[in-house]
Protein backbone atom coordinates (compact mmCIF):
# COMPACT_ATOMS: atom_id res chain seq x y z
CA UNK A 1 0.00 0.00 0.00
CA UNK A 2 2.72 2.46 0.96
CA UNK A 3 4.63 1.57 -2.20
CA UNK A 4 1.52 2.54 -4.16
CA UNK A 5 1.57 5.98 -2.54
CA UNK A 6 5.15 6.54 -3.73
CA UNK A 7 4.36 5.35 -7.27
CA UNK A 8 1.34 7.62 -7.63
CA UNK A 9 3.14 10.59 -6.08
CA UNK A 10 6.05 10.24 -8.54
CA UNK A 11 3.57 10.29 -11.43
CA UNK A 12 1.91 13.45 -10.11
CA UNK A 13 5.25 15.23 -9.67
CA UNK A 14 6.38 14.29 -13.19
CA UNK A 15 3.12 15.52 -14.75
CA UNK A 16 3.24 18.72 -12.72
CA UNK A 17 6.73 19.49 -14.01
CA UNK A 18 5.63 18.65 -17.55
CA UNK A 19 2.67 21.01 -17.16
CA UNK A 20 5.00 23.80 -16.02
CA UNK A 21 7.26 23.20 -19.03
CA UNK A 22 4.35 23.28 -21.50
CA UNK A 23 2.88 26.37 -19.85
CA UNK A 24 6.21 28.15 -20.26
CA UNK A 25 6.22 27.17 -23.95
CA UNK A 26 2.75 28.65 -24.39
CA UNK A 27 3.79 31.85 -22.62
CA UNK A 28 6.69 32.27 -25.09
CA UNK A 29 4.74 31.37 -28.23
CA UNK A 30 5.23 34.94 -29.49
CA UNK A 31 8.79 35.47 -28.22
CA UNK A 32 11.19 35.92 -31.18
CA UNK A 33 13.75 33.15 -31.50
CA UNK A 34 12.34 31.12 -28.60
CA UNK A 35 12.96 27.37 -28.83
CA UNK A 36 10.31 25.10 -27.38
CA UNK A 37 11.30 22.77 -24.54
CA UNK A 38 10.65 19.04 -24.77
CA UNK A 39 10.46 16.73 -21.76
CA UNK A 40 11.94 13.25 -21.44
CA UNK A 41 10.04 11.10 -18.93
CA UNK A 42 11.45 7.76 -17.83
CA UNK A 43 10.42 5.10 -15.35
CA UNK A 44 12.36 4.13 -12.27
CA UNK A 45 13.93 0.64 -12.32
CA UNK A 46 11.39 -2.14 -11.80
CA UNK A 47 11.47 -4.39 -8.74
CA UNK A 48 11.10 -8.17 -9.05
CA UNK A 49 8.79 -9.57 -6.38
CA UNK A 50 8.86 -13.08 -5.06
CA UNK A 51 6.80 -14.94 -2.46
CA UNK A 52 8.36 -17.01 0.31
CA UNK A 53 6.55 -20.23 1.28
CA UNK A 54 7.24 -23.30 3.42
CA UNK A 55 8.67 -26.44 1.90
CA UNK A 56 9.33 -29.86 3.30
CA UNK A 57 12.54 -31.47 2.05
CA UNK A 58 12.07 -35.27 1.73
CA UNK A 59 15.00 -36.63 3.73
CA UNK A 60 15.33 -39.29 6.40
CA UNK A 61 14.57 -36.62 8.95
CA UNK A 62 12.21 -34.17 7.10
CA UNK A 63 13.54 -30.61 7.10
CA UNK A 64 11.25 -27.62 6.75
CA UNK A 65 12.65 -24.76 4.73
CA UNK A 66 11.64 -21.69 2.69
CA UNK A 67 11.41 -21.35 -1.05
CA UNK A 68 10.76 -18.35 -3.25
CA UNK A 69 8.12 -18.22 -5.96
CA UNK A 70 8.36 -15.44 -8.50
CA UNK A 71 5.39 -13.07 -8.48
CA UNK A 72 6.41 -10.61 -11.19
CA UNK A 73 7.80 -7.13 -11.79
CA UNK A 74 6.57 -4.05 -9.96
CA UNK A 75 6.88 -0.54 -11.38
CA UNK A 76 8.21 2.08 -9.00
CA UNK A 77 6.99 5.23 -10.71
CA UNK A 78 8.26 7.74 -13.28
CA UNK A 79 10.30 10.94 -13.29
CA UNK A 80 11.26 13.71 -15.67
CA UNK A 81 14.82 12.89 -16.63
CA UNK A 82 15.67 16.03 -18.63
CA UNK A 83 14.39 18.78 -20.88
CA UNK A 84 15.70 19.26 -24.42
CA UNK A 85 15.16 22.38 -26.56
CA UNK A 86 13.67 21.89 -30.01
CA UNK A 87 16.10 23.77 -32.26
CA UNK A 88 14.32 23.60 -35.59
CA UNK A 89 13.87 26.81 -37.60
CA UNK A 90 10.95 29.05 -36.67
CA UNK A 91 8.86 30.94 -39.21
CA UNK A 92 9.99 34.38 -40.37
CA UNK A 93 7.96 37.50 -39.69
CA UNK A 94 8.56 40.77 -41.52
CA UNK A 95 8.95 43.85 -39.30
CA UNK A 96 10.62 46.32 -41.72
CA UNK A 97 13.00 47.37 -38.93
CA UNK A 98 16.66 47.63 -39.88
CA UNK A 99 17.76 46.33 -36.49
CA UNK A 100 15.69 43.13 -36.82
CA UNK A 101 17.83 40.44 -38.43
CA UNK A 102 16.65 36.85 -38.86
CA UNK A 103 19.15 33.99 -38.89
CA UNK A 104 18.16 31.36 -41.47
CA UNK A 105 19.45 27.79 -41.34
CA UNK A 106 21.03 26.34 -44.43
CA UNK A 107 22.89 23.06 -44.67
CA UNK A 108 23.94 21.97 -41.20
CA UNK A 109 26.03 18.83 -40.67
CA UNK A 110 24.79 15.89 -38.61
CA UNK A 111 26.93 14.71 -35.71
CA UNK A 112 28.21 11.18 -36.36
CA UNK A 113 28.05 10.18 -32.69
CA UNK A 114 24.59 11.40 -31.73
CA UNK A 115 22.87 11.60 -35.11
CA UNK A 116 21.67 15.11 -34.19
CA UNK A 117 21.79 18.09 -36.55
CA UNK A 118 24.04 20.97 -35.50
CA UNK A 119 22.75 24.47 -34.76
CA UNK A 120 23.88 28.06 -35.31
CA UNK A 121 23.47 31.05 -32.99
CA UNK A 122 24.24 34.75 -32.74
CA UNK A 123 27.21 35.58 -30.53
CA UNK A 124 26.60 37.81 -27.52
CA UNK A 125 28.93 39.23 -24.90
CA UNK A 126 27.76 38.13 -21.45
CA UNK A 127 28.96 40.31 -18.54
CA UNK A 128 29.60 37.28 -16.29
CA UNK A 129 29.91 34.11 -18.35
CA UNK A 130 31.93 35.20 -21.37
CA UNK A 131 29.91 34.49 -24.50
CA UNK A 132 26.22 33.65 -24.68
CA UNK A 133 24.22 32.54 -27.70
CA UNK A 134 20.75 33.27 -29.00
CA UNK A 135 18.45 32.93 -31.99
CA UNK A 136 16.57 36.12 -31.16
CA UNK A 137 17.57 38.63 -33.82
CA UNK A 138 15.40 41.45 -32.52
CA UNK A 139 18.30 43.84 -31.96
CA UNK A 140 18.53 47.53 -31.15
CA UNK A 141 21.15 50.27 -30.77
CA UNK A 142 22.00 51.46 -27.28
CA UNK A 143 22.78 55.06 -26.31
CA UNK A 144 26.41 54.66 -27.42
CA UNK A 145 25.51 53.13 -30.80
CA UNK A 146 26.39 49.52 -30.03
CA UNK A 147 24.20 46.74 -31.42
CA UNK A 148 22.55 44.92 -28.53
CA UNK A 149 19.91 42.27 -27.92
CA UNK A 150 16.63 42.98 -26.01
CA UNK A 151 18.37 42.36 -22.65
CA UNK A 152 21.15 44.84 -23.42
CA UNK A 153 23.88 42.29 -24.18
CA UNK A 154 26.32 43.35 -26.87
CA UNK A 155 26.16 41.58 -30.22
CA UNK A 156 29.64 40.44 -31.28
CA UNK A 157 31.10 40.44 -34.76
CA UNK A 158 32.97 37.57 -36.41
CA UNK A 159 36.15 38.70 -34.58
CA UNK A 160 34.53 38.70 -31.17
CA UNK A 161 34.29 42.52 -30.96
CA UNK A 162 31.32 44.74 -30.22
CA UNK A 163 29.54 46.22 -33.24
CA UNK A 164 29.48 50.04 -33.17
CA UNK A 165 27.23 51.79 -35.71
CA UNK A 166 26.61 55.51 -36.30
CA UNK A 167 22.84 55.07 -36.58
CA UNK A 168 20.20 52.55 -37.63
CA UNK A 169 20.60 53.43 -41.31
CA UNK A 170 22.67 50.38 -42.25
CA UNK A 171 22.27 47.34 -44.49
CA UNK A 172 22.94 43.69 -43.72
CA UNK A 173 23.87 41.34 -46.55
CA UNK A 174 22.94 37.67 -46.68
CA UNK A 175 26.39 36.72 -45.38
CA UNK A 176 26.01 38.92 -42.29
CA UNK A 177 28.20 41.75 -43.57
CA UNK A 178 27.05 45.17 -42.29
CA UNK A 179 27.34 48.12 -44.66
CA UNK A 180 27.16 51.82 -43.79
CA UNK A 181 27.21 54.19 -46.77
CA UNK A 182 28.18 51.23 -48.98
CA UNK A 183 31.25 50.52 -46.85
CA UNK A 184 31.62 47.25 -44.91
CA UNK A 185 32.09 47.97 -41.21
CA UNK A 186 31.56 44.58 -39.52
CA UNK A 187 30.25 41.07 -39.94
CA UNK A 188 27.70 39.78 -37.45
CA UNK A 189 29.17 36.93 -35.42
CA UNK A 190 27.58 33.50 -35.77
CA UNK A 191 28.69 30.41 -33.85
CA UNK A 192 28.14 26.74 -34.64
CA UNK A 193 27.45 23.93 -32.20
CA UNK A 194 27.93 20.38 -33.46
CA UNK A 195 26.13 19.00 -30.38
CA UNK A 196 23.52 21.62 -29.42
CA UNK A 197 21.79 19.19 -27.03
CA UNK A 198 24.74 19.70 -24.66
CA UNK A 199 24.11 23.46 -24.39
CA UNK A 200 22.52 24.85 -21.25
CA UNK A 201 19.42 26.91 -21.84
CA UNK A 202 19.05 30.04 -19.70
CA UNK A 203 16.42 32.73 -19.29
CA UNK A 204 15.51 35.11 -22.14
CA UNK A 205 16.30 32.54 -24.83
CA UNK A 206 20.03 32.46 -24.11
CA UNK A 207 22.30 29.41 -24.38
CA UNK A 208 25.74 28.74 -22.94
CA UNK A 209 28.23 25.89 -23.08
CA UNK A 210 28.64 23.49 -20.17
CA UNK A 211 32.30 24.29 -19.50
CA UNK A 212 32.11 27.99 -20.42
CA UNK A 213 34.24 27.66 -23.55
CA UNK A 214 33.30 29.62 -26.66
CA UNK A 215 31.69 27.89 -29.62
CA UNK A 216 33.62 27.97 -32.89
CA UNK A 217 32.72 30.43 -35.62
CA UNK A 218 30.15 29.18 -38.11
CA UNK A 219 32.00 31.03 -40.88
CA UNK A 220 34.98 28.69 -40.50
CA UNK A 221 33.02 25.48 -39.93
CA UNK A 222 32.98 23.07 -42.83
CA UNK A 223 29.71 22.11 -44.52
CA UNK A 224 27.82 24.84 -42.65
CA UNK A 225 25.69 27.27 -44.64
CA UNK A 226 23.27 29.94 -43.47
CA UNK A 227 21.99 33.38 -44.38
CA UNK A 228 20.50 36.48 -42.78
CA UNK A 229 17.54 38.59 -43.71
CA UNK A 230 17.25 42.18 -42.53
CA UNK A 231 13.82 43.50 -41.55
CA UNK A 232 12.66 40.07 -40.39
CA UNK A 233 12.64 38.18 -37.11
CA UNK A 234 12.51 34.46 -36.47
CA UNK A 235 9.34 33.59 -34.60
CA UNK A 236 9.09 31.05 -31.82
CA UNK A 237 8.91 27.44 -33.02
CA UNK A 238 6.23 26.59 -30.44
CA UNK A 239 3.29 24.73 -31.99
CA UNK A 240 0.44 26.28 -29.98
CA UNK A 241 -2.17 23.69 -30.99
CA UNK A 242 0.09 20.73 -30.21
CA UNK A 243 1.25 22.32 -26.96
CA UNK A 244 -2.34 22.88 -25.81
CA UNK A 245 -3.19 19.25 -26.58
CA UNK A 246 -0.13 18.03 -24.64
CA UNK A 247 -1.04 20.34 -21.79
CA UNK A 248 -4.53 18.83 -21.51
CA UNK A 249 -3.05 15.33 -21.67
CA UNK A 250 -0.63 16.11 -18.83
CA UNK A 251 -3.45 17.60 -16.78
CA UNK A 252 -5.64 14.52 -17.29
CA UNK A 253 -2.76 12.23 -16.32
CA UNK A 254 -2.20 14.26 -13.16
CA UNK A 255 -5.91 14.08 -12.40
CA UNK A 256 -5.96 10.29 -12.91
CA UNK A 257 -3.06 9.86 -10.48
CA UNK A 258 -4.90 12.08 -8.03
CA UNK A 259 -7.95 9.78 -8.17
CA UNK A 260 -5.77 6.74 -7.50
CA UNK A 261 -4.17 8.54 -4.57
CA UNK A 262 -7.60 9.26 -3.13
CA UNK A 263 -8.55 5.59 -3.51
CA UNK A 264 -5.39 4.55 -1.63
CA UNK A 265 -6.21 7.05 1.08
CA UNK A 266 -9.74 5.71 1.51
CA UNK A 267 -8.41 2.15 1.71
CA UNK A 268 -5.98 3.19 4.42
CA UNK A 269 -8.80 4.83 6.38
CA UNK A 270 -10.84 1.62 6.26
CA UNK A 271 -7.81 -0.42 7.32
CA UNK A 272 -7.28 1.81 10.34
CA UNK A 273 -10.88 2.52 11.38
CA UNK A 274 -12.66 -0.73 10.49
CA UNK A 275 -10.17 -3.60 10.24
CA UNK A 276 -8.38 -2.39 13.33
CA UNK A 277 -11.53 -2.80 15.42
CA UNK A 278 -11.76 -6.50 14.55
Topology, please?
Elements: H1 2-27, E1 37-43, E2 47-57, E3 63-74, E4 78-85, E5 92-94, E6 101-105, E7 119-126, E8 130-134, E9 140-141, E10 147-148, E11 154-155, E12 171-172, E13 177-180, E14 183-187, E15 190-193, E16 200-201, E17 207-208, E18 226-230, E19 232-234, H2 240-275
Antiparallel strand pairs: 1-4, 2-3, 5-19, 6-18, 7-8, 7-11, 7-15, 9-10, 12-13, 13-14, 16-17
Helix pairs in contact: 1-2
What is the H/E order?
HEEEEEEEEEEEEEEEEEEEH
Q: Tell me the distance between the termini.
A: 20 Å
Reported for the largest beta sheet, the result is: 4 strands, antiparallel
- Unreliable segments of 5+ consecutive residues: none
What is the average per-residue confidence, as pLDDT, rounded to a whole number? 86
Content-based structural category = alpha+beta
Number of domains: 2
Strand content: 25-35%
Separate helix tally? 2
Can you characterise this structure?
It comes from Psychrobacillus vulpis. The chain is of the alpha+beta class and 278 residues long. The chain has 2 domains: 118 residues, no CATH class; 147 residues, no CATH class. The chain contains 2 helices and 19 strands. The strands form 8 sheets. Strands 7, 8, 11 and 15 form a 4-stranded antiparallel β-sheet that branches. The longest helix is centred in the C-terminal third of the chain and has 36 residues. The radius of gyration is 28 Å and the shape is elongated.
Amino acid sequence: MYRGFHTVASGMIAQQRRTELLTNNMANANTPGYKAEQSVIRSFPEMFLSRLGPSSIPTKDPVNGKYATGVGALGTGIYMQETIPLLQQGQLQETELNTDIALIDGALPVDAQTGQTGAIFYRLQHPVEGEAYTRNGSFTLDAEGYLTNPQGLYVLDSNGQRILLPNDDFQVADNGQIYVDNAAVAQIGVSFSAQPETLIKQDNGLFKTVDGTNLPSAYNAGNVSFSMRQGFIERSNVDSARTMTDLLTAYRAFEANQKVLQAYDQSMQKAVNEVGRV
